[in-house]
Amino acid sequence: MNSESFLQYRDGQLYMESISLNSIAEQVETPFYCYSAAAIKARIGDCKSAFESIGATIHYAVKANSNLAVLRLMAEAGLGADIVSEGELARALKAGIPPQDIIFSGVGKRTSELLAALDAGIFQFNLESIPELERLADLCESRGRTANVSIRINPEVDAATHRHITTAVRGSKFGIPFSQLELALERIVRSDSLRLHGLAVHLGSQIVTLEPYEKACRRLREWVIELRDKGYPITHLDLGGGFGIDYGDGRCLAYGAVAAVIDRELRNLGVAIAVEPGRSLVATAGVLVSEVVYRKEVEPVPFLILDAGMNDLLRPALYQASHQLLTLKQSDEAREICNVVGPICESSDSFLQQASLPRVNSGERVALLQAGAYGAVMASGYNSRDVIPEVMITGDQYGLIRRRISHRDLMEYENFA
Ligand SMILES: Cc1ncc(COP(=O)(O)O)c(C=O)c1O
């Protein structure tokens, strides 16, 4: 099911589920994020039917959107979590995701974070360096605990995605290089407090072809066989996330296609498989609603200056990403070429360049689409702006799932020396 079908014009107004976005904007000041609960549930359903049919477990990558209301939907559907900080652990637990379904990833887990996860009794730590392995072993010994661990291995597979979201090529900071793998495994099997699960990979994000998954699975299969021959009991493989969504160019990866590759390449290996989708579960279910503060007539093309900026949605500045734009009021104006920018004092604060849009005037409202992942979680108060609210629609109801954190709220945390 296409989750964008939850976004439609009705009687000249853009509706999400059964509510017009303009009617929410009358109550909640722009800019704000707005998510469709039904769209997220539809993606969860697609994901479950693809991966559960091959026996894989799904651990939502909390970093994509960590709002408690979003996490609650994941918990209610029985999904586990992939976390990268103590804060994400706290959120996942608060939303009702059981600790025994939580995997802890990340290259720089601090002592306090490892301890919090140990005390919570999480399912698995994905270790990314030998020093981290040593630290966890020491902490387990001092606490009299055991931990399930997998080694995040750098499979050196180029996923041909943006360089800032490529994670599995030679020289990347992520994962343990192959040359150190046996050293790490030896240290684990000799430890009384670390229990070896297996190997983990994450190839990058917004991957739109199957090839990287095929290559990684083949490599993993060989390694599992080889390592078992050497006496290392590999029982688990974690294939990470990265499944690309359609940002408007029609390129995306279907869950079913990835599941089929995993099943074909790793069937009969006798390992438990986990996946960690983030973006693909939430991106298309969310929009950023904004108002055009000014239409600025300049040559060669006019600017639409939005009240949303790069502090609210960082992806275009960070990854040169572009998000489709729709007007909240259906327009029959002729199309024109224009630039859509934010109000921040940075030239990278630009959403769309040379975009073809129906003419939009000052005061009109627009929605930037596919904003449900890596949007609100990256928002900041840069330029002393508010951290904007998040709204979730369920049928014909909407709720404020994060209130505005105003510039005044943020000043409360500061003092004169
Ligand atoms: C270890 C790990 N797993 C899963 C994900 C989720 O990736 P995506 O949101 O592209 O599915 C990430 C994202 O960076 C990650 O680092």
* C-alpha-based Rg, rounded: 23 Å
**Estimated structural class:** alpha/beta
What's the shape? Answer: globular
- State the helicity in percent bands: 25-40%
Largest sheet: 9 strands, mixed
CATH-defined architecture of the largest domain: Alpha-Beta Barrel
User: Helix segment count?
Assistant: 12
Mean pLDDT, all residues: 95
Determine the CATH superfamily of the largest domain: Alanine racemase
Percent of sequence in beta strands:
15-25%
Instruction: Note the quaternary state here.
Output: single chain
Low-confidence regions: none
Quick one: CATH class of the largest domain? Answer: Alpha Beta
Q: How many domain units?
A: 2
Query: How many angstroms does the end-to-end distance come to?
Result: 55 Å
What can you see in these coordinates?
The structure is a single chain. This protein has 417 residues and is an alpha/beta fold. The chain is 29% helix and 24% strand. The protein is built from twelve helices and 20 strands. It has helices at residues 21-27, 37-52, 68-76, 86-95, 111-120, 130-143, 181-190, 211-229, 255-266, 279-282, 315-319, 407-411, and strands at residues 7-10, 13-16, 19-20, 32-36, 57-61, 80-83, 102-104, 124-127, 147-152, 194-200, 236-238, 272-275, 286-296, 303-306, 325-327, 335-341, 350-358, 365-368, 390-394, 397-402. The strands form three sheets. Strands 4, 13, 14, 15, 16, 17, 18, 19 and 20 form a nine-stranded mixed sheet that branches. The longest helix is centred in the middle third of the chain and has 19 residues, at 211-229. The radius of gyration is 23 Å and the shape is globular. The protein starts with 6 loop residues before the first strand and ends in a 6-residue tail after the last helix. The structure holds pyridoxal-5'-phosphate. Residues 61, 64, 82, 105, 202, 205, 240-243, 276-280 line the site of pyridoxal-5'-phosphate. Pyridoxal-5'-phosphate is lined by residues 61, 64, 82, 105, 202, 205, 240-243, 276-280.
